[in-house]
Amino acid sequence: MLMRISELFINKYANDADLQIETFLKHKQQLYKFYAEFSDKINDYRVWRLIARIKSLLKEPLPAVIEVKKNEIRSLQKPGWNVNLEVVEFVERAIIDLVGLLEEADQLTNEEKAFIRTTTIAIEHALQRKCKIEDLVQRMSS
Question: What is the C-alpha to C-alpha distance for residues 31 and 39, in angstroms, rounded to an integer?
Fold first, then answer.
């Protein structure tokens, strides 16, 4: 349902060259309000992943996309997340996306480095292999 609503919004408002900017912004605000209400009730990584994708597609500022990506990771990191290999791989994918966004925005704080480093260590321990970005732990240590 959420995917369909997002698709309809993009087709009707984002791809319409004749649409006035005020109308677009009004509908975008309503879409984001719907996302907020939906994600308050359903805390699922797929919802956050979709919201991050839509915000990127609509050229939202990187800090807004970064925050949504962090929410995706938080929704995956429920107690025992590191023993479910499928969830660990989802966290790995989200961490790699987050690192790319943070580096693009040049906003890598010490707190974020520590979070990425410890999450990556847990991923590597659970999967018994290096993260897809092999030097990620080392890069986040400096």
Answer: 12
Is 19 strand, coil or helix?
Answer: coil
Q: How far is CA 137 from CA 4, 125, 133, in A?
A: 38, 12, 9
Q: What DSSP designation does 15 have?
A: T
Place of tokens 């109308």: 23
The phi, psi pair for 20, rounded to 5°, reads -70, 145
| Look-up of token digits 């999967």 | 127
Contact 123, 95 (CB under 8 A): yes
The span from the first CA to the last CA of the chain, in angstroms, equals 43
**Report field, pTM of the whole predicted structure over 0.85:** no
Spatial CA neighbour of 47 closest among 84, 1, 97, 86 = 1
Chain segment 29-47, per-residue pLDDT in tens:
888 888 888 888 888 899 9
Which run of H or E residues covers position 117?
A: helix 110-127
